[in-house]
Amino acid sequence: MSGGFEKRLGGLARLSGSPMAGALKGVEKEALRIDPQGELAQTPHPRALGSALTSRYITTDFSEALLEFVTPAYATTWETLRTICDIHQFTYERLGDELLWAASMPCRVPDDDGIPLAEYGKSNVATMKTAYRRGLGYRYGRHMQTIAGVHFNYSLPEHFWPVYQEVLGDPREAGEFRSEHYLGLVRNFRRYGWLVLYLFGASPALCRCFVREEPAGLRPLGNDSLFAPYATSLRMSDLGYSNQNQSAIVISLNGLEEYIRDLSLAIRTPEPAYQGIGVKVGGEYRQLNANQLQIENEYYSSVRPKRVARSGERPTAALRRGGIEYVEIRSLDVNVFDPAGVNQNTMRFIEAFLVYCLLEQSDPFTTETFLEANRNQALTARSGRQPGFELVRGNRPVPLVDWAREIVARVADVAALLDRGDTACAYLEATRLMQSAIEEPDLTPSARMLAEMQRFDGSFFEFAMHASRSHRDYFASIAPIPAARREALEREAVESIERQAQIEASDTLDFDAYLARYFAAD
Predict the structure, then answer these.
(1) Average per-residue pLDDT for the chain
(2) Are 274 and 139 in contact (CB under 8 A)?
(3) What pLDDT, on a 0 to 100 scale, did the predictor assign at position 215?
(4) Strand pairing of 58-60 and 66-70?
(5) Parallel/antiparallel/unpaired status of strands 150-155 and 390-393
(6) Please, what is the Cα angle at 50 between 74 and 299, to 5 degrees?
(7) Cβ-Cβ contacts under 8 Å for 311 (sequence gap 6 or more)
(8) pLDDT in the model for residue 147
């Protein structure tokens, strides 16, 4: 880390007001539907929630039982939290006796054949979405796809960019400047994202049923659970999304054209292991293709540079058309201690941390520094709370606590700027809470989970079932959704079903031709 951060922050601080005011924040939160006994729900996506294909608020991810709640992007964390709570409350009113599983690591999931793929109707786009998910199941196993998380979407306000460009004295074209600095943010998030796992990881344990054999480094806990004593996020470890299947795929983050080039290449490059699966077998698509990636979204990363795509437009084409519009943070576990899975303090700290990542010097990755960042994340996921735990910075060991203190001190400087004009100092208060968790690891969600599980004889299942019931009861007990917001959710449920019908009626190609045209577009 260099003095460039102080210079950039100082340049922004000399301006009147807060140049980052009005940044947009949105949340996507996943949750498995389960029956009253805690088994994965086998029922279809509730029609009362609308169409999973076209609803703006409630869709599904991999499985028919894996709900995904989506908020619009708001200028305040309060609006974002309020909307995610409204969606939870609206959903619970329509679930009957089913529950939403409260944790990231799944419930008592059945064998792969018992995990139903998400269904989106009869249209070509619906068939493609289901076929893609079938391919994920063949490639990685369906168990891994039932893991839930929280995604945080963030974009700086339009008025920020010309101001920041002037502070830096950079004469480049505005879109190029914006994309380059968003990519700098992305690289730094990959460098320092281990801090997010330490502070917000909430998956130190799992049900035995999730793994076929007891993995190295995990210990038995009670009769039905496994855990790692100092783990922060097994979801983000090699047991979850940081698996080895994609280790040979290298996607550059050093420039937008390189990023688009490498993603596009992976979608065109055959993968022998996947060729053995077959593509269209017995008239059914097992996967969309037998290449390294079926589509761009298959490449898992803790952070993605993104642009809202037009209808039928591929993500890489959207980026090529208009550059980076926002970033998507994908490394947040579902917080089992929050009924909505996330809270304002988390969102406020993540926002300040992202601005820090933007302002801090962000050199291009070399192979060595990229692997170092990946190792630091993997080590923190498995052992981040271990006393004296060390990471590697520039080939030298550094205690996690020391490095975390250094980063969070700078995040606090950003928080003070975000708080300008707010006497409550909400961003700074959120940062102070995280500083406490650095000094006292027992305050982290992962440590609290393991401590709380002792009340349930070490059973992850019983602990999470208790939390799931408590969250249901919470949403039943709070004030009803105000009439205008409830009407908007109800109207969206009805209109989304109508939009799905319109899409199905408008198809003119058979699916083979549709798929060929999709991949031919650039």
Answers:
(1) 95
(2) yes
(3) 77
(4) antiparallel
(5) unpaired
(6) 65
(7) none
(8) 96
DSSP H or E stretch at residue 398: strand 396-399
With beta carbons less than 8 A apart as the criterion, state whether 504 and 137 touch. Answer: no
Integer Cα distance of 479 and 85 in angstroms: 11
Residue 423 phi/psi, 5-degree rounding, is: -65, -20
Q: CA-CA distance, 398 to 212, in Å (whole number)?
A: 35
Q: What pLDDT does residue 234 have?
A: 96
CATH value at residue 453: 3.30.590.20
- Planar angle of CA 137, 121, 70, nearest 5 degrees: 75
CB neighbour class for 258 (10 Å; exposed up to 12, middle 13-18, buried from 19): middle
Pick the closest to residue 357 from 394, 320, 305 (CA basis).
305
User: How far apart (Å, rounded) are the C-alpha atoms in residues 307 and 288?
Assistant: 23
Is the C-alpha dihedral spanning 124, 126, 132, 135 positive or negative? negative
Residues 495-510 as b or e (16 or more Cβ within 10 Å = b): ebbebbeebeeeeeee
In this structure, what token pair is assigned to residue 278? 């077959």
Query: Which residues does residue 199 pair with via DSSP β-bridges, in sequence order?
Result: none
Which two structure tokens, joined as six digits, stand for 353? 């941390």
**pLDDT at 86 (0 to 100):** 98
Q: Could you tell me the two tokens for 8?
A: 């950039």
The C-alpha atoms of residue 130 and residue 516 are separated, in whole angstroms, by 16
Tokens matching residue 300: 């898992």
Predicted confidence at residue 341, as pLDDT, reads 98
> What pLDDT is recorded for position 18?
84
Q: How far apart are CA 129 and CA 266, in angstroms?
A: 19
Number of domains in the chain: 1
Query: Among candidates 327, 337, 378, 329, which has minimal Cα distance to 155?
Result: 327
The C-alpha atoms of residue 471 and residue 63 are separated, in whole angstroms, by 22
Residues of the chain with pLDDT under 50: none
Looking only at the bridges linking them, the beta strands covering 284-285 and 303-306 are unpaired
Other residues' Cβ atoms within 10 Å of the Cβ of residue 332: 28
Contact predicate 265/259, CB 8 Å: no
The pair of structure tokens assigned to 175 is: 């879109």
Q: Where are the beta strands (DSSP E) in 199-325?
A: 205-207, 219-221, 225-227, 280-281, 284-285, 303-306
Q: Which amino acid is at 288?
A: L
Domain of residue 325: give its range.
Answer: 4-520
Would you tell me how many other CB atoms lie within 10 Å of the CB of residue 244?
Answer: 7
Put the strands of the sheet holding 205-207 in their side by side order: 205-207, 225-227, 219-221
Q: Which residues contact 315 (CB under 8 A, 6 or more apart)?
A: 263, 296, 297, 306, 307, 309
pLDDT digits (tens, 9 = 90+) for 418-460: 999 888 999 999 999 999 999 999 999 999 999 999 999 999 9
Integer Rg of the chain from CA: 22
Contact 462, 456 (CB under 8 A): yes
Which residues lie below 8 Å from residue 492, measured CB to CB, with a gap of 6+? 50, 55, 56, 57
φ and ψ at residue 24, rounded to 5 degrees: -95, 140
Q: How far apart are the first and last CA of the chain?
A: 38
Helices (H), 398-441: 400-418, 426-439
